[in-house]
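Predict both folds.
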Amino acid sequence: MKKTLLLLAAALLTASSGCARHNAEYTTEATPEEQPAGNYVVKTVDANLRGTAILNAIKADYKGKVVLIDFWATWCGPCRRAMDDVDRIKPYLMKRGAAFVYITGETSPMKDWQAALPQIDGDHYRLTKAQWESLCTELEIPGIPAYLLLNKDGSEAFSNLKQGGYPGNEIIQNNMEVALSK
């Protein structure tokens, strides 16, 4: 009985821990041609870009804005819980001019990703398997969720890319307030 309880506890702990890299089989699916109504925009980057060139292309769209970039996946429970937390501070920060960008890869099944979009205000990028892997490797992202906050000039204001996990609304909001005041 003790072994069974111990195995059950270990399984629950493993299932509820942070989302490290997900090793689901990747599938290549077309970008959605139509977007349902919502406060989100689906954006793309050149499929030939790899690594930090992807990040540089994304940064170029947000010159003059403070941007919180969220690396996430649809299957990642901690990612979704963090998004719920951010939703409490997002409207205020958006009114102040901040942008919210969400980056995921093909481990987020297309249908699940499309279904999630209307609930996540911001700009969304869904990278190919090769793009996601090269970006995570170059940025040394060990797992998700992970966050990168950019100043108005595109420089880094805050990052937990190498640690991962949601740092909390207080840290995110404080860092965004500082960046917005510059």
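Second protein follows, with its predicted structure tokens after the sequence.
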Amino acid sequence: MTDYIVPLILFVISAIALGKKENPYDLMLAGAADGLKMLLSIIPALVLLLTAVTMLRQSGAIQVLSGFLAPFFNFFGIPPETAVLMLVRPISGSAALAVGADLIATHGVDSLIGRTTAVMLGSTETTFYAISVYFGSAGIQKTRYTVPAALIADFTSFLVASFSVRFLGL
């Protein structure tokens, strides 16, 4: 069934365009051109984010910072081993998946840390990536309250994920 979804969508779009007596090929080309323009405006932010995450991971700064924040996480009942994940997730989804895979491989799938990691990965967003994509495509330069609000939402998601796993036995 899933093999037919994209061709079906293209067929429906083409049928609608033809019904309106418009050229579906030209419309799709215009949409693709707009997508490429948006991609060109987003690429610099993505390169910067990925470079920064790689530098922080390779330098060991993230591990030092997570060790420093471990007592804070313990206070809230969040496993301190997930500190690296919590620091990386708002910045890079691929780095967060790598950290999550490492945590799960180290502690096991059915461990408290493994389950907490899985729920954290599924309940949070790559905040800075999403902000750069959405604000960049809309041409918004200043994020004002968006970044603090999004980071508070991320922390809340991490906290609820940890409580859910611990108290609901997920």
